[in-house]
Amino acid sequence: MKLLSRLGAYATLALFVFIAVYPISRILTISLRPSDQLLSRSLALIPDGATLDNYRVLLTETPFLRWLGNSLLVALVVTITGVALASTAGYALSRHRFTGRKAALSGILVTQMFPATMLLLPLYIVLIELGLINSYVGIVIIYSATALPFCVWQMKGYYDTIPASLEEAARIDGATPWQAFYKVILPLAAPALVITALFSFMSAWNEYVVAAVVLQDAEMFTMPVGLKLFQGSISTQWGLYAAGSLLVSIPVIALFLVLSRYLISGLTLGAVKG
Hints:
This protein is mostly helical. Helices cover 73% and strands 0% of the residues. Helix 2 packs across helix 12 (238-269) and helix 3 packs parallel to helix 6 (136-160).
């Protein structure tokens, strides 16, 4: 009975792995096809006459690297902003009791129900008034504002799991409140900081709609907006599209691999208390 149960579990896992991997394998195949075989129905992983021409053209004859740099710049700034603000705001909400604290927590929770696209019109009007349309500052503000509610709540929940006695001990030893925070509490909150950084990075890296509205200069396009240019009204450059889709996933995969040891504890412990 135990053997059947284990086989069933492995079969289920294999099915889900296939569902996850199959679309990626199709994209890889399309990226390697010669231009005259893009519409082929062959299921071979490596197509006949496989070529790297799509990758060569993408990297040398299109602004792909420029878009990649733009996306990295925006994502890194949003990540730093999210970590800095969420780590301090979450700490204040966790450790201090002040007027309006419950209202602030409720407001943060409610804002997670509204996607950025729903708030795009008022945000667009605000950016026009501030003169931040077609600027990285404007898009960073929107991405940071939409990512922060989850990040603050995540950090607050994780701080709740850290005993306050650790800070009290540091204060007794002569540490200031700030020293107790960044020398004692912040290192213990590393898993939650990783989740915050990863969520902030992904919020900026994958987003298309807001970037397509705010950024109007092709030289400033981020990766999702830039890749959309390969899709025309008459024809679509599927080979370049597929090659770009694979290359753009590499930074995210690398980030997950580097931070993987923090992910499980950060996601579980940070959600223990509300």
